[in-house]
């Protein structure tokens, strides 16, 4: 590790001791100077005292707590409510860089939607051998019940939250596509509201694109996919309820869109049509933005023990009387085992080269890959293909011998269940820790909406791994978040 | 609106009203206890036990070297194992609000959440042993702020009316019970104990946030008959039973979207009859026993209103 000292200046300022590691740092270049688009923020931070930041951070925390922003871990009667910590130093992305992300994501989601239509219909891509058929057809997220079903407007993934990371040279890479029920967009919106309240002066030097249009754009998508018979479509958001860890987001989005937040017990299916129980009797529902996994959606089709779902919903969907966002069976597109093939999908369907690259990925299922993976467990990150949220992972450099042996045995037993990637040092970003700014690893989750056209909301959720050196940014694993600023073209630098 | 949402609106508001009344009752009893200390032999037993029995609460288990009065205060205010405590009521209200966060205004949620966090403050809770006043005051202010924010930020549509129903139905029952717990005093009519009677009937008024309003209207010593009249049938005071019933009637009318004289609507009929009984009530004829009978009957009709409401709008 080479530890360069960043910048000069009075020893007491917040960035005085800022250390650069091996990773790409978002604010400070290799030469120790701030990157041009960070210069104004850098100057402000140097003028600020730790006290200013401490006060700001306290206001941020209080504000988050009072708004009840966070996730809940319910234990016994009292329940434990954790607020997802927000770091007050924003992450900044210049306009040109953002444009690349935007076109790259648009390309990617286009290909994913074409792929889903294909695998649930003619399956050309499997027959042409571009993606191994077995991989798809035996994947845990492939819904064979849905083969041949026509989904409204041929869109499967309406809401996507793709995770991007930056390699040591600063290149944006796709870490995973979240094509089922991605969450986090409410934090993106809430973070902006809070930072405007707490550090308004930071905005003086920047032209930041607003991200506030997201709920309205999402509602447009929902109305676009409504059955044509509905002239004034009624959309609802289907949530597992207040004990779900993303409940804050569900209520937030329902409120911002002005639609009802419903639970399974509020809905019923009669004659293949979906209704909600209201004080004035039953009311027809046309579009469901569901935040419940496929497995729990309908006890008649999927898990019979699900109390969260609505019996008969899947048949109503098949009959076309109600639309779902996202559609059923999208999980096969963000299956970690299928992920290595997304670049091939882009070439196959769009006849284009991918604009955003994948992280190099090894598939133990391929014999040559397997031997490489097993020989290099200490330097690789191994992931189970059917887990998410930072669970079921082996981070080689941080692992113990026992953990590695455990994974070795599992990989040998069922190679299809794993992928392995080199340990990428996710980029670092100055983060307020213990009264000063230190580099912490971050990723970026932009949100893509797919309706009449594909839009990428200018912004995204920057997640930050708060423990020093940690590479795991998930909220369930000690992560926090940052406001993410996309700069307008007009920004002077 | 979803039946489940209507139900949560109703209970969110009802539990808050309950918390407010209980907080006020503890504070008033605490003050009364101090006042009576010099004049009565066992004010502690008298007043605190009366409060517990009105709430149908058993005396709390004493913790090590805990003063009995401190134990009652802890039990009623901050003990979350007591489902009827202020803290438990606020929690239930907040849980109802949580379950409908998308249907109430963000400012309402924020205010209720702030109240929850303030009441969870350990320093504030610790002070209860010494004086419950701060805790009670936080509760009352928090509830009032919530309703102020609700009034100003939530559309006065169906959901808002369910909030009014929860609030005023709970309030009507509270006032009826407070009056009923004192009807015995009216019977005895001990003129000799004027100062004490004054204190006790003053406490009844304070329990219903009615002391100053009463004074402005009657400009005199607290007279039991007038207290009863004020709290039962005053048309303009927000804590009188008649006022509450009129509000309930108005909200029911708005919700059902029908005229109140629909004969076949059992719910509207029940509320309408009680309201008209109150409007035409001749308070002078109510001596102790008759008052007790009237109050008991009115309470039953309030309960019936609650259960009809559940049937009609399929609240759980």
Q: What report would you give on this structure?
A:
Chain A has 493 residues and is an alpha+beta fold. Among the domains of chain A are: 94 residues, 3-Layer(aba) Sandwich (Rossmann fold); 61 residues, Dna Ligase, domain 1 (2-Layer Sandwich). In chain A, 28% of the residues lie in helices and 21% in strands. Chain A contains 13 helices and 25 strands. Chain A has a 4-stranded parallel β-sheet. A 3-stranded mixed β-sheet of chain A has the order 5-25-24. In chain A, a hairpin with a 2-residue loop joins strand 20 and strand 21. Chain A is globular, with a radius of gyration of 23 Å. In chain A, 46% of the residues are buried. With 316 residues, chain B is mainly α. Chain B has 2 domains: 154 residues, no CATH class; 160 residues, no CATH class. Chain B has 15 helices and no strands. The longest helix of chain B has 34 residues. The radius of gyration of chain B is 20 Å and the shape is globular. The mean pLDDT of chain B is 89. At the A-B interface, helix 8, strand 10 and strand 12 of A face helix 1, helix 4 and helix 5 of B.
Summarize the structure.
With about 500 residues, chain A is an alpha+beta fold. Chain A has helices spanning about 40-45, 50-65, 95-120, 125, 135, 185-200, 215-225, 245-255, 295, 315-320, 340-350, 365-375, 400-415, and strands at about 5, 20, 70-75, 80, 85-95, 160, 165, 170-175, 235-240, 260, 265-270, 275-280, 280-285, 285-290, 325, 355-360, 380-385, 395, 420, 430-435, 435-440, 445-450, 455, 460-465, 480-485. In chain A, α3 crosses α11 (about 340-350).
Summary tags:
heterodimer; A: about 500 residues; alpha+beta; Rossmann fold; Dna Ligase, domain 1; 4-stranded parallel beta sheet; 3-stranded mixed beta sheet; 25 strands; disordered N terminus; B: about 325 residues; mainly alpha; 2 domains; about 70% helix
């Amino acid at each position: 590790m080479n530890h360069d000292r960043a910048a000069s200046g009075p020893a007491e300022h917040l960035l005085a001791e800022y250390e650069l590691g091996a990773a790409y740092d978002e604010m400070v270049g290799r030469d120790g100077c701030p990157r041009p688009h960070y210069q104004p923020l850098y100057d402000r931070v140097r003028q600020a005292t730790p006290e200013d930041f401490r006060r700001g951070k306290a206001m941020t925390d209080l504000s988050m707590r009072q708004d009840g922003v966070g996730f809940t871990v319910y234990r016994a009667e009292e329940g434990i409510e954790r607020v997802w910590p927000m770091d007050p130093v924003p992450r900044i992305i210049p306009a040109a860089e953002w444009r690349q992300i935007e076109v790259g994501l648009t390309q990617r989601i286009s290909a994913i939607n074409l792929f889903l239509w294909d695998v649930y219909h003619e399956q050309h891509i499997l027959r042409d051998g571009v993606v191994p058929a077995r991989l798809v057809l035996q994947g845990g997220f492939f819904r064979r019940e849905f083969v041949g079903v026509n989904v409204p407007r041929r869109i499967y993934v309406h809401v996507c939250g793709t995770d991007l990371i930056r390699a040591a040279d600063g290149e944006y890479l796709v870490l995973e596509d979240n094509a089922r029920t991605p969450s986090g967009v409410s934090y993106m919106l809430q973070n902006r509201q809070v930072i405007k309240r707490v550090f308004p002066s930071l905005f003086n030097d920047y032209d930041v694109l607003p991200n506030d249009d997201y709920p309205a754009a999402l509602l447009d998508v929902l109305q676009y996919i409504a059955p044509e018979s509905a002239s004034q479509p009624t959309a609802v958001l289907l949530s597992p309820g207040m004990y779900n860890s993303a409940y804050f987001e569900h209520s937030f989005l329902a409120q911002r869109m002005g639609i009802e937040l419903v639970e399974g017990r509020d809905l019923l299916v009669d004659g293949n049509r979906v209704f909600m129980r209201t004080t004035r009797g039953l009311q027809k529902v046309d579009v469901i933005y569901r935040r419940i996994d496929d497995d729990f959606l309908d006890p008649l089709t999927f898990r019979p023990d699900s109390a969260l779902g609505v019996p008969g919903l899947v048949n109503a969907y098949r009959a076309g009387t109600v639309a779902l966002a996202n559609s059923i069976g999208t999980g096969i597109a963000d299956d970690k085992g299928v992920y290595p093939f997304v670049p091939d999908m882009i070439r196959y369907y769009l006849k284009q080269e991918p604009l955003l690259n994948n992280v190099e990925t090894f598939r133990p299922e391929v014999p040559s890959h397997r031997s490489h993976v097993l020989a290099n467990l200490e330097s690789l990150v191994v992931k189970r293909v059917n887990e998410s949220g930072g669970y079921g992972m082996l981070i080689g450099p941080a692992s113990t011998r026992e953990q590695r042996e455990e994974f070795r045995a599992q990989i040998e037993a069922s190679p299809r269940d794993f992928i392995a990637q080199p340990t990428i040092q996710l980029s670092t970003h100055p983060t307020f820790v213990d009264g000063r700014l230190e580099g912490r690893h971050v990723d970026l989750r932009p949100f893509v909406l797919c309706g009449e056209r594909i839009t990428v909301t200018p912004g995204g959720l920057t997640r930050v791994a708060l423990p020093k050196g940690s590479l795991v940014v998930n909220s369930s694993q000690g992560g926090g978040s940052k406001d993410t600023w996309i700069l307008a073209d007009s920004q002077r630098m | 609106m979803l039946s489940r949402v209507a139900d949560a609106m109703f209970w969110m508001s009802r539990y808050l009203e309950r918390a407010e009344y209980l907080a006020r009752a503890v504070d008033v009893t605490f003050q009364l206890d101090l006042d009576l200390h010099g004049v009565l032999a066992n004010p502690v037993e008298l007043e605190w036990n009366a409060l517990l029995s009105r709430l149908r609460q058993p005396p709390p288990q004493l913790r090590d070297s805990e003063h009995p009065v401190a134990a009652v205060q802890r039990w009623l205010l901050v003990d979350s194992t007591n489902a009827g405590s202020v803290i438990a009521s606020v929690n239930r209200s907040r849980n109802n609000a949580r379950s409908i966060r998308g249907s109430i205004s963000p400012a309402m949620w924020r205010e209720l959440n702030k109240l929850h966090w303030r009441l969870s403050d350990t320093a504030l809770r610790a002070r209860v042993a010494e004086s419950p006043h701060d805790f009670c005051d936080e509760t009352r202010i928090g509830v009032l702020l919530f309703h102020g924010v609700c009034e100003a930020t939530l559309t006065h549509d169906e959901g808002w009316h369910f909030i009014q129903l929860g609030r005023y139905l709970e309030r009507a029952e509270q006032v009826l019970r407070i009056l009923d717990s004192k009807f015995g005093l009216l019977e005895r009519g001990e003129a000799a104990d004027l100062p004490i009677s004054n204190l006790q009937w003053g406490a009844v008024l304070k329990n219903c946030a009615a002391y100053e309003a009463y004074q402005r209207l009657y400009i005199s010593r607290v007279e039991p008959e007038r207290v009863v009249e004020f709290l039962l049938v005053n048309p303009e005071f927000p804590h009188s039973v008649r006022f509450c019933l009129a509000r309930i009637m108005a909200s029911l009318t708005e919700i059902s979207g029908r005229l109140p004289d629909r004969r076949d609507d059992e719910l509207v009929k029940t509320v309408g009859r009680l309201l008209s009984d109150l409007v035409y009530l001749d308070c002078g004829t109510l001596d102790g026993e008759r008052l007790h009978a009237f109050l008991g009957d009115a309470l039953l009709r309030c309960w019936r209103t609650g259960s009809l409401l559940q049937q009609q709008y399929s609240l759980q």
